[in-house]
Amino acid sequence: MTTATPTVGVGAQAAGKPTRAGRVRKRLNSRTATLVSIVIALLWTVPTFGLFVSSFRPEDQIKTTGWWTFFRDPQFTLENYQQVLFSGSSSGRLASYFINSLAITIPSVLFPLAFAALAAYALAWINFRGRDWVYIGIFALQIVPLQMALVPLLRFFSTGVTVGGVQLLPAWDLVDEQKFAQVWFAHTCFALPFAVYLLHNFVSQLPSDLMEAARVDGATHPKIFRTIVLPLITPALAAIGIFQFLWVWNDLLVALIFAGGGNETAPLTVRLAELAGTRGNEWQRLTAGAFVSIVVPLIVFLSLQRYFVRGLLAGSVKG
Amino acid sequence: MEFDWAGETPKFLMLMYGLIAFVAVVGGLLLLLDVVPAWFARRQEAQLVAASTSGTPLPRRRKPREGLFALFFLLPTLLLLMIGLVVPAIRTTLLSVMNRDGSSWVGLDNYGWMFSEDSIIQVLTNTLTWVILVPLVATAFGLIYAVLVDKARFEAVAKSLIFLPMAISFVGAAIIWKFVYAYRGEGDQIGLLNQIAVSLGGQPKQWLLESPLNTFLLIVIMIWIQAGFAMVVLSAAIKAIPADIIEAARLDGTTPWQMFWRITMPSIRPALIVVVVTLSIATLKVFDIVRTATNGNYDTSVIANEMYNQAFRYQETGRGSALAVFLFVLVLPLVIFQIRNLRQQREG
Fold first, then answer.
1. Which of A3-17, A200-214, A244-258 bottoms out in mean pLDDT, i.e. has the lowest?
2. Average pLDDT over residues A112-123
3. Is the pLDDT of residue A177 over 80?
4. Is A106 part of the contact surface with chain B (CB cutoff 8 Å)?
């Protein structure tokens, strides 16, 4: 606390030189603020850090001593990861589920992005009757919790559509890894209202002169969409893409219902929730497994944080 | 046992099919919209040329078919929303007044069951606790932290650390905190909370088994995740307060306390409301945390979790649907409020 001494001296003549006193006090304030905010931030990270450290400790160590003893008696191993990723199905076999997570996530991000961009463009720049009503309709669908759609959508996949005894659409009858298609479909449907709404905000704010000029030059709507609109809304697409990526990768409910629990389709989250339930005391597997599931979104998040925050703000504040 | 990479090939194949389908659908749609109008335009041009050379009166030019374009641009979205949301939501509402396999009408029985069964009343009380505590505490913490960090150095790093749990799945977060709450009968404790309890002279406990404490411990997880969201949005709102207002207040000699209540709070009120409402909606739908941490046992279940259990574990479709509809009814006023709020903001 070396700063305390000068404050006293300045404080004595504060009446004469308020600006200097103020500056010192402000600096002091900002020091306390810095200290307190960093301490809180570190406390916030302790649970994650504990998990991370534990995942590298040998099994007998994890099960008998706290992770904080690691610093007194460091014992390091990669065995947990080896076990949980690659060995037999009873201990995790998470590599398989990791691939499932990837296979589920990539199309589940691409489809809604593309469809929402097309829809947002049409709603913002093509004149047709009832445009506002269509937009309001899509917008209003945001209020439907996806719980409202789960049971009927599952039936749609498993038994098809029957109206008055007439089979209109057959059942999908998907097996094993084909069930990915169901998950893609469900995620795409559930993502669309929000994605259309956000992208519409961006697309409708593009300068209308630009569109006019392109129309005068004889560009058709698809051409304007491809060559003018798409490049301009790339940041917005990135933001929504990250959003959707994190949402799908971290989702449990949709995957649980539409992918099933087998290692052919279930993503990491489903498998981890299962391990936490049936092998709640196998901390060597749970810690390593949880970290395997966290690492991808963490990388995405840290490297693209700027876009993510922008998307968040656009979604919640600017509307 | 060695890991069998060959066994994973069908998944990659399926992923590739998915990507091919994506390219085919989106690319095909754009190509279609590009080629067909171009063909029409050429034909029209040829007609015009023919008409001008032969001297016959020009055919009346039709209005460009804007609506047709719009239809194709909107087609995938509208189709998917119809199949995936609109029709299912209506069917769920219908199922909620039918019996367990949807074969006969039972009126409001399912709703009556919801409010008479003790375990479901427990579920509703839990949900109420969640939806009161999470938005309140997370927003309060986010606000205090945003004000605090505004003056601090290393602002970006500190904010990232608080914000980090947002990237972690609810499942991952639940496991992280289950580890904090972990319990051992004898010897050293491995859970941080029990270690703290022991070093303060207390007895180690099975935290997650003790109702009603366990619900609060689960709520802590949600707050831990969502505080970062509140902090980021509010911090942006604080930074957006015009500098001259702050400068003027400072010249008038306001204390930091006055500054906070008279300047900061009124300026960020809209953002504050948005945060509280968004968090309330997210909290009402919370499912993953409860399912992973306790699976809804020991009196910790919430609506979304109970809905899943009824509809998909016990095959009680009617009851599950009734719970889903009830969830919808709870969310409805919040979202309407949110939308009205956003529109006022944009007009103002």
1. A3-17
2. 92
3. no
4. yes
Contact A66/B189 with Cβ under 8 angstroms?
yes
Does residue A84 contact residue A96 with C-beta atoms inside 8 Å?
A: no
Query: Is-contact B158 B152, C-beta < 8 A?
Result: yes
Q: Which residues pair with A166 in a beta bridge?
A: A163
B152 contact residues in A (CB cutoff 8 A): 30, 33-34, 36-38
Three-class SS state of A163: strand
- The pLDDT-based confidence of A317 (bands split at 50, 70, 90) is very low
- pLDDT of res. B223: 94
Q: What is the per-residue pLDDT for B143? A: 92
Could you report the predicted ipTM of this complex, rounded to two decimals? 0.83
Quick one: pLDDT at residue A91? 61
B67–A99 C-beta distance less than 8 A: no
Q: By CA distance, what is B29's nearest residue in A?
A: A222
> Which residue is listed with tokens 């959707």?
A244
Is the CB of B339 less than 8 angstroms away from the CB of A180?
no
Among the partner residues B191, B236, B331, nearest to A313 by beta-carbon distance: B236
- What is the secondary structure of A166-233 as a DSSP string? EEEE------GGGGHHHHHHHHHHHHHHHHHHHHHHHHHTS-HHHHHHHHHTT--HHHHIIIIIHHHT
Give Cβ neighbours of residue B165 (< 8 Å, ≥ 6 apart): A44, A48, B173, B224, B225, B228
Chain B residue with minimal CA distance to A301? B167
With CA atoms as reference, report the closest residue to A246 among B21, B173, B159: B173
10-residue averages of pLDDT along chain B (348 residues): 71 88 89 78 79 67 66 89 90 86 80 86 90 93 88 81 87 90 80 84 82 89 91 87 86 84 86 86 88 86 89 86 90 81 65
Residue B302 forms contact with A (CB below 8 Å): no
B119 CB neighbour count, 10 Å cutoff: 10
Structure tokens at A296: 């991808």
Q: What is the mean pLDDT of residues A127-136?
A: 85
A286 and B308 within 8 Å at the Cβ level: the answer is: no
Asked if residues A104 and A293 have their Cβ atoms less than 8 Å apart, the reply is no
Model's pTM, two decimal places? 0.84
More confident residue, A20 or A17: A20
The CA–CA distances, whole Å, from A4 to A10, A39, B104, B157 equal 10, 21, 79, 27
Smallest Cα distance from B10 to chain A, Å: 7
Contact residues, chain A, for B85 at CB < 8 Å: 141, 144, 148-149, 189-190, 193
Residues 234-293 on B with a CB inside 8 Å of A are 236-237, 256, 270-271, 274-275, 278, 284-285, 287-288, 291-293
Task: State the Cα–Cα distance between residues A221 and A219, nearest whole angstrom.
Answer: 7
